[in-house]
Every structure is written in structure tokens, then in C-alpha cells.
Request: fold
Amino acid sequence: MWIRRRFLLALSLVILFASLLVEPTVGRAQPPPTKHLFCLQDLPRAVLLGPIPVGCESIDCCPGCPARAAIDWRIRLAADAVEAMVLEFEGLPADARGRLTIEGEGRWLDERRLEILPGMTLVRGFPRALGGRSPVAVARVSRMRSGLDLVRDADRPLEFSVEQFVGRVRVNESRSRYWLVNCVRPPVGPASQDVVRLDNNTSGDNGIVLLDARRSAGCVNDEVLRGSGNVSIGNALSNGVCRSEVVVFSNHHAVQVLPNVTTWTDAAGDLLPVPLVAPWSTPVVIRVLVSPFTTSGGTGKGDIAQDDVDRANDLYGTMNCGLALQPTIIDATGNPNAPGLLTRMCSQAASLRTQIGFDPGKINVYYIADVKRDDAPDQSVRGATCGMVLSSTDPNEWNTILVSTLYEDPETLAHELGHAFTLAHTNANPDFTSKNIMWGSGANRTYFTEGQCFRVNVNSESALNKNGVRTGPTRSCPDGTTSDECPALSLDVTPNN
Reply:
């Protein structure tokens, strides 16, 4: 009898464990998702779920499973208003990413951040914790849907869940449901303020709004207002004979120019949405002719080129010019023609284009040993933008920049690119200091003005427009021009964010 009872007990356990292996959603009872209300305006970078530990919820959560069996995550995102979420891991072993496989709507952004798109994502192969602290992840919204309307798209559900499995046994689960609501609704009906609304401002930039409009006292030009969401502008009246335009600058977005705005009426409470978009992606091809050349580590000239690109990206981004360099750095030291081309001036740059290489429609930068002045060939300079030096209309010459490696000035590339974007030297302008990027022969240059960034974007001769990088209205605003269409070159708004 005793043997028979032991046999029946063992058989029951085998049947129970087998049933767990058949059904992938077995384990603890699935709880209903936690339901929350959440402001649409607060979503970017907000923690929606976490911390989520990698591993079992309880000790011995998978009886009979191999002790070292890997853990798989099944991640589900369902949301209309959200384009992507990010799982940020802490404590994940350095080599774990290489052992994990991803199926579905996910991709690694770096060693610890996993981007999740709407739909289902499977991540297989997490190490099963065997003592010590388990890795954990928190879930954040990283991108809102482009063109999101905070009024129309309010009251939308967002569901996010992470289920963890050892084999076919669910050993842990985290689930949340949010109802997204508009917590700052623009005025409806009688109100005291018109509003410029900055949509898709996922990084929370404190945007700069330049306003041309009609006020009760008459036409106003380049009024400066600030905000990160709904920017109240008082009561802008119907245009009448006044110019009506809105320009928006911010750290992480392209400059937005909205001419001929017809939104404003004589009654307050009008709303102008301004969708912010990513900075203009600007291709730059850099060929380094001078040894030693390295692309990472060391102290070679390839490193200088990359450092210069990083510095230029920082300046054109944080100073609100709204562009991002996309560099291709090429080691040209092995080119058999390179030794004879290490000293050049712009009138000789055609030899660099034909013998070293040139990509039409992109900005081409040549790092050489010595750049000479065309008007004084015995003098060396830090760099030259050949279209400006030669007063040329040839697009290839405007897309040719020479940089000398005799001077390790980190702002030379940003300065020469400024010329390619139509900016001239500011040395003779009393409104500028030697810290301006376009100050010739300056040291430790640190800033552009909004007036300069405006011209970088809207001047029809700017490389952004001539190379087809940017879309949007263009006009002619030489540096010395101040008009209703062209803000003063020295117009500066600080802080920039």
C-alpha cells in the first residue's frame, strides 16, 4: 500500500509538470493589467514599468527545469500614440547582448538600451540568476507618434507587458495599462491667449519662437517667446497689412519656418500646431591625406577629423541650427597621389577632387598638411571653403573644404562649414565677440546666434538647400541684411535650451 501511494503521488507530479510544459501561459494566474491615467505631455522619458528583474518571481518557480536554463522575454506594446519604447537594463553582464537573440519588433540602441516598437518582441537567452543581484530593466517611452494631436489623440490606451519564460513555463510577468489624457488642453472658446503648440518635442527642449504678427499696437517683428509645449503668445490679431510668420528653434530639432500664417483671428484662443522634426541629416565626406591615420584610439589625424565632426555636431545642435552631420571618414593616405597633394590652395583643389575622390551633392572635406591662401600663396591658413574663396557659383567648389593639420583647432571644421552654409566672418561686426564660430582666426569659439542659424537654414545658397538636404521655404538673407524677412544676424537668445 505504501509503495502504491508513493507511485500515485509521483505519477501526479509528473502529470502536473507535463501539463505545465504543454501550455505556454501556465504558471501563476495572470493578473489584470494595472490601469493608470497618464498625461500625454509627460510621456517622453517617463518610467512606465519597472524595475523588472530578469528571472523567476519566486524561489523554485520552475520545478524540474534545468538550473542553468536561459530565460526568454515576450514583450508586447500596443499603443496608437507611441512609436517606440526603450528598456534600459542595469546589471546586465557585458557579454550578455552577444548571447541574446531578438525576434520581432526590437533592436539594440547600445549595450544597455533595447528599443521596442508596437507589436510583439521575443528576446531569448537571458542568463538565469543563480544568486546575487539579478539584472533589472525599466521601460520608458522614447518616441511619440509623428503629428500627434494632443486634443484629438487624448484618451488613448497604452498597454505594455513583459512575460518571462523558462522553456514553456511562465515564471514572471509585469503588465500595465495606461489611459493617455491631455492634461494641458489649449483654450477653447473665449480665452486670453493664443497658443503656438510645439508637437513631438520628445526631448522637452525649451524652444525659441520668433513671431511676426499684428498686435493691437501695430505690426511686430521677431518677438521672442519660449516654451516646451503650449507657448502662450498673448492675442495675435488677424494679419491685415502685417507680415505673419512663426520660426521655431530648439536643440534637438530642425529649424521650423512657417510663413504666411493665417491662424490668428481678432479673438483670443487661436491655436497654431508646429510639428518638430529631427535635425537635417547633412552628409559630409572627409578624406584624410596625412599620416598617421586612425579611426579610433591613438592620436592620429583620423582622430582629429572625428573630433572635429563631434565638435561641429555639438555646436550646430546645441546652438539651435537644427542640423546633424553624417560623416564618412576615408583614409586616403594610401592613395598614390596623396604625397603630391599635401599642400594646396582652393585654385588647386580640382586636383584633389579628380585624384583623391569627390562625392557630388555632398560636402567634401580634405585634411591636408598645409592650406595656402590664394591671394597670398606664401601664407598658411587653418582652412578654406573654396566656393567662397573663389567667389564661385560652381556647386563642386562650394562643396569643397580644405582643412590644415598644421593647426589643431577643433572649431575649424565648424567654421568652414558655416561658410558653406553662407555665413561670412564676423570680425568687423561690433555685435559679435571672438567666441563666435564665424570669427576668423578665433580661439575656443563657442556659439552661433539665432540670426546665423536662420541663415544656415533659409538662405537659398546654403549647402543645406543646394544639396537638397532641407525642405522648406528659402530666401536671400545676406549677413548684413536686417528686414522683415531676415532677422538681424546678431539676434541671439540665451539660454539656447
Remarks:
- The mean pLDDT is 84.
- The chain has three domains: 27-181, 195-275, 280-466.
- The radius of gyration is 29 Å.
- The chain is about 15% helix and 35% strand.
